[in-house]
Amino acid sequence: MKKMRMAHVAQIEDISPHMRRIVLKGDDLNDFPTGKEGAHFKAIFPQTGEAIPKLGTYPGFKKWMRSYTVRRFDDQSKALTVDFAVNDHEGLATNWAKHAKKGDLLGVAGPGDTKYTDYHAAWHLLVADLTALPAAGAIMEKLPKTAVGTAFIQVPTEGDKQVIAAPEGITINWVINRDLSQKALLQAVENMQWLEGTPAIFIAAESSHMMAVRQYVKTKPGYSKEQTYASGYWKI
Questions:
Q1: Closest of 119, 151, 122 to residue 137, by C-alpha
Q2: Residue 99 burial (CB < 10 Å; 0-12/13-18/19+)?
Q3: Whole-number pLDDT of residue 173
Q4: Angle CA(186)–CA(180)–CA(69) in degrees, nearest 5?
Q5: Mean pLDDT of 195-207
Q6: What CATH number matches the domain at 123-234, 3.40.50.2300, 2.60.40.10, 3.40.50.80, 3.40.50.1980?
Q7: In what order do the strands lie in the sheet with 149-155?
């Protein structure tokens, strides 16, 4: 298990109807590694009725952990920014984020390594839903200025669009879709113009949607398994 740290909520911002941005600070973050935007860490939540998360490994400890994305880390202020999808479902992490207030404590384990396969690929394809928007956004902001490609990001409403500092050559398409029985992400990718060369591909969404997109891109020219990251972030 990666190093565990204790942090507190320093700032809360509702950046869209379904996304709450929480900035964490604390002395334990003084040695948090830099350059990990887009990587996962384990958020450790307080147990029922408790205010302080229990750090360490003990029977059942994973029940209180969930994977989240390093959206941003400011090495100067030692501030860790984490975006939580909210107001769409219930759950340990969502409920904590929805009711969070300044001073609340959260454990932080990790982070791991970034999963993007090649920041200098011939071109880039990113396919994400709301839960993977923080990772996709962080990746796009780390791409070189000369990068070209396309991103498809599925969100529930027009109000959930975000400003992402992507290179000019990256076209961001917002797929507005509340009905998850519709494979809107797949339809969007099927209708895109496929570029020449081997792309770096990032697909992260609800499991069945991710698998549908992955099956499709496998059939396209230039596809490389080694250049593709695909992950089911959750299941309907």
A1: 151
A2: exposed
A3: 98
A4: 80
A5: 97
A6: 3.40.50.80
A7: 170-176, 149-155, 123-128, 199-206, 228-234
